[in-house]
């Protein structure tokens, strides 16, 4: 089905991002594969992305951005990464643009904007969002990292885990408890603040070894008596949970869109493969099972794509609801998992070899049902909105 989402400017942006990917990420010598083995993307890639105009597109021109607050540009980046067999979250750019940047754009005061926005657009400042702790993930309000006010500083203690861009990040949006509060008040005690690379007591810990998304640096972070100036508080003290909840729909839509792009790419690779590969004197693609499998997956992905495109329009119009974003997230990531599994099967043994993009896409896909809020939590959000 023809998509009505994009205009000429998005297609121009797509063409230049494709060139960036070919030149800076894929490269003749297979750079991305090397980063997967090393477990991290080199910093120069982010400054190259910044120079190309692929970071912080929504940052106002007065702060060095393009002033283009249009989520369709973010979608183009995700789609092109997945098409090239590069996980958009593995590269780190999608987390920076889609998930972290909105916090800076929405909650920074003028002085903070002047300090940080141009660096976010140029790639000199790279970001992470740290909510999850070793003891809590889904139940965010139960976090135990604390920030105690002491004059013109907060003193931060605690630890976070599974933090995407955790090694590369210069600025970490950190969720902390600034108030104690009883059970009823536990959401109100949360604040967000920016912790900067190099602050005394702030350690980027282990780069965690994962099942997939190998190029992504996913790390533990620890905070021991870190003195964070009050000027680094984002928005108002105690309103952090509200800020997180307000930004999560965009995060979840970004994950959903990435999932659908990954599924589309997998179907494309599988179609090529089944037409070439022969068994019993005929191409694998000529078996009815193959036709049915790919027809089903293609249909499901097209239907999901239509919903995600509609959600993107709603987000641009500031109308995307938490329930719609949660639906997109759980449905599309579940579908991504099914697509990867069934496509891999059609590759036979080659599908299990990491040199084949389908094998990497299969392992990369597993986490999308977990992060950004586990799919069970998404169904809780939707179920509650139905009055259950
Ligand atoms: C690769 C990777 C990258 C990540 N990046 C980030 C990041 O950048 N920043 C960040 O803050 N976090 C990040 N996370 C953390 C991620 O968001 C959490 O793992 C996720 O929210 C689930 O939390 P948990 O792991 O503590 O699981 P738990 O909360 O322990 O839940 C375990 C399972 O229990 C079930 N469950 C939990 N609660 C309920 C419920 N109410 N009803 C029904 N079932 C339930 C679900 O099946 C869930 O999957 C990342 C995780 C991974 C693996």
Q: What spatial form do the alpha-carbon principal axes imply?
A: globular
Amount of beta strand: 15-25%
**How are the strands of the largest sheet arranged?**
1-4-5-8
> Taking all residues together, what is the mean pLDDT?
96
Distance between the termini: 36 Å
Q: Uncertain regions: pLDDT < 50 for 5+ in a row?
A: none
| Helix/strand structural class | alpha+beta
Radius of gyration: 21 Å
Helix content: 40-55%
Bound molecules: flavin-adenine dinucleotide
Order of helices and strands: HHHHHHHEEEEEEEEHEEHHHH
> Helical segment tally?
12
The major sheet is characterized as: 4 strands, mixed
Tally of extended strands?
A: 10
Account of the protein in words:
By secondary structure, the chain is of the alpha+beta class. The chain has helices at residues 8-26, 31-38, 44-52, 71-83, 88-91, 93-107, 110-122, 240-276, 288-316, 322-346, 357-365, 375-385, and strands at residues 127-130, 146-150, 153-164, 171-177, 190-196, 202-207, 218-229, 233-234, 278-279, 282-283. The strands form three sheets. The chain has a four-stranded mixed β-sheet, with helices on one face. Strands 2-3-7-6 form a four-stranded antiparallel β-sheet, with no helix packed on it. α8 runs parallel beside α10 (322-346) and α10 (322-346) runs antiparallel to α11. It starts with 7 loop residues before the first helix and ends with a helix. The structure holds flavin-adenine dinucleotide (FAD). The site of flavin-adenine dinucleotide has 21 residues, from β1, β3 and α12. Flavin-adenine dinucleotide (FAD) binds next to β1, β3 and α12.
